[in-house]
Description:
The relative contact order is 0.19. The protein is of the alpha/beta class. Helices cover 27% and strands 22% of the residues. It has helices at 24-35, 58-65, 104-114, 121-134, 146-157, 194-200, 250-260, 315-322, 326-329, 371-390, 476-504; strands at residues 12-20, 40-43, 72-74, 80-82, 137-138, 162-164, 167-168, 204-206, 210-217, 220-229, 235-247, 272-273, 276-282, 297-299, 306-310, 339-346, 351-357, 360-368, 395-398, 427-429, 432-433, 459-461. The chain has eleven helices and 22 strands. The protein has two domains: 1-48 and 100-134 and 191-270 and 433-505, FAD/NAD(P)-binding domain (3-Layer(bba) Sandwich), CATH 3.50.50; 67-74 and 137-176 and 275-429. Strands 1, 2, 8, 9, 10, 11 and 22 form a seven-stranded mixed sheet that branches.
Amino acid sequence: MKGSFRRNSELQLEADAVIIGSGAGGASVSDVLTAAGLSVIMLEEGGHVPPSSAPRVASEAFAAAWRSGGLTAAIGRPPIAYAEGCCVGGGTEINSAIAQRADSDLLDQWRKLYKIENFTPDELARYYERAETTVNASLTSGPLGRPTDILRLGGKALGWKVSELKRGQRGCKGANRCSFVCPNGAKQSMAVTVLPKAVDRGMRLFARTRVDKICIEKGRATVVVAHSQDPVGQAVHMRVRAGLVFVCAGAIHTPALLRRSSLRKRIGDTLRIHPTIRVTALFDEPVDAHQSRLPLTAVTEFMPEQRIGGSVFTPAVFGLSLAEDWTNRGDLMQAWRFCGSYYGMIRPRGVGLVRPLAGINEPLVRFKLAPEDWIALGQVLTRVGRAMFAADARKVLPSISGHEGWTSPDEVDEFWNKPLPKGSTNLMTIHLFSTCPPGEHRDACAVDSYGRVRGVENLFVADGSLIPEAPGVNPQMTIMALAFRVAEAALSHSAQERARSAARE
């Protein structure tokens, strides 16, 4: 990318726009702004991990591309582990690149509930189409492997709707390292697609640069204050002046940054996630999931409220999952070639919050499941178990510490009508949303219908924070669609503002 990821010791910078974060949201904003001819500076906290340097070992990949090495959790009972990318390209470098749109009925519900202008499925369609074209969302050709077949066979044997999944890809080689940064550049992440294009148009991208705060004066964002390091490791303080400021740091760090910048009203109060429970399924015949693509089908019969899918599987990742209850499950490592990893996720009714902590880089994150969420998790876990046995699993072990596992389909209804045990259930999520919901319902919305922070003329949010509630599907396409929409609206708003200023002068 023509050296665009080198750190710069310059203290004072100016541009038409500054973008904070380089993931699906920030990259999409950069595409719109640079195409319009604006000078753009992008600030990214993480480093650049090109495909040629993609780590082969899980521990190295987590250190290079995952926030806090993958060790992050929302406080609650139980705590819920969550994952975020922290590198150039953000979460698109470590996700599975699955491309799905939010359900049309949900979009309509959100439009009415939050009073979001121009938010119908038809009005959003062109933004979704742009997102899908950007990443070449497409079905994967050729044999998909036994992990995919297991989910397809299990779902269809039960009469459930099973859907093939499109992914952002070009010539996927099935390396099964989606979570480690794709070593082939086949996964169409932001560092492979949009960001090089924006850099070629003149965008300056500063990696390993953390934003401390945004200075607000007289209802305008005036300066973005950040710090970086020079090539010898010395701290460099940066001040960036720009006419437009876009915060695209994700559903955790966007509200934390806004709150550090003294913007607090309805910001970070409504965190939503996809609570997810996993199972390990043991089969009599080898699965060899490490040699296959991640499962590229999903049980969509119960969407958007519940979704059943499969996870990336490598020996190292499998070992980490067993570590939740190593005393009882460590022996499964000897049978790892015969195992597959699957999950059920729900759209929760519970809500969490995000708060920055003075002197600490990572904010406080809390999430409390509602009573009905526990019932839904029990139901989706039951359904995952049924699907595994329908695909001839020998044993199914839910992600519940101390649980002995099920050896027949007659046992899986254990939690159908009762909550899972809070003290021993291990939950996780890779999907985070809704900490800055948009709309004209001022009692519920942190930003207006087009992502502009209330009370600040030139400050916009454009990332997963904007998705009003959990969508029940992988969120990347929705994040990109909303970011394209915000960037277009910001350009229009800026042009109108300049015209009013010229008229006054």
